[in-house]
Design brief:
About 45% of the residues lie in helices and about 5% in strands. It contains 10 helices and 4 strands.
């Protein structure tokens, strides 16, 4: 919520930042200092398992040459203009736009002819398994974390403003991916995060019931809690792609793109 409020406020000038080569005072030097800090934060962890790295690298590099004719692959249904209109209606007009300066309010006022054209573009993404580089380019806005030292570049959240058209298209990619995961029962039943109709409250309830059942049987229940630092920032993208190659889908090449 605090980060969202920042985007609604007038941009504030960032004070001098302490980088590797001393303090940065000019806007260009501040931007470079924050960029270097973000690059470090988003660097991959050292996997330290060469065999796994080589196996994943080999499968992901050769994957585009694999013919997607496996019987387990379902034909994708084309996106309909009515589906695009439905998503556009639910867009928040207060959300910031990205590099192309196309606001959600503009999308809500598109004529029908443009809706048909945009629908065709989305379907071509699925047809050719390609996501344009321009739609993956974000405008990064640094936002200071509450109560943190303003001179330290690592204390700034990198708020990435993607193209509104890109985020709109992601809705349909996510729907296709979720359908594939559900139909093939790929996700384990105990995973509640980022799943429809499931929340952390359900997970807590499951754990409480498990512990209660142990009490009734006069058993002790052990638990291990892990917190992966910067899990999303440092995800090994080739890993999930390698895993999904075992359960191929038409959109896997699109996700790789």
């Amino acid at each position: 919520m605090e980060r969202l409020e920042f985007l609604c406020k007038k941009a504030q000038k960032i004070p001098a930042l302490l980088g590797e080569n001393g303090f940065a005072y000019s806007d260009s030097n501040k931007a470079e200092t924050i960029a270097l800090s973000i690059e470090k934060q988003f660097s991959l962890n050292d996997l330290s398992h060469r065999e796994t790295e080589n196996e994943v690298k080999k499968s992901t590099e050769n994957f585009p040459s694999f013919p997607l004719t496996n019987n387990r692959i379902d034909n994708l249904k084309c996106i309909q203009p009515s589906e695009v209109i439905k998503v556009i209606k639910n867009l928040n007009i207060r959300k910031a736009c990205g590099l192309h300066c196309i606001a959600n309010k503009m999308l809500k006022n598109l004529p029908c002819t443009m809706i048909f054209e945009f629908t065709e573009i989305i379907n071509n993404f699925f047809k050719f398994n390609y996501f344009p580089k321009a739609w993956k380019t974000a405008v990064v806005v640094p936002s200071l974390k509450p109560g943190k030292d303003t001179t330290q570049p690592e204390n700034y959240w990198p708020i990435s403003l993607l193209s509104t058209l890109s985020k709109l298209t992601e809705n349909f990619i996510l729907d296709k991916l979720n359908e594939h995961l559900a139909e093939n029962k790929i996700l384990c039943p105990e995973q509640f995060g980022f799943r429809k109709s499931l929340t952390t409250t359900h997970q807590l309830l499951r754990v409480v019931e498990y512990i209660t059942s142990g009490f009734e049987k006069v058993e002790c229940t052990g638990a291990v809690f892990l917190d992966a630092q910067k899990a999303f920032d440092r995800i090994w993208i080739q890993g999930p792609i390698h895993y999904q190659i075992q359960n191929p889908t038409h959109i896997l090449q699109l996700l790789k793109s």
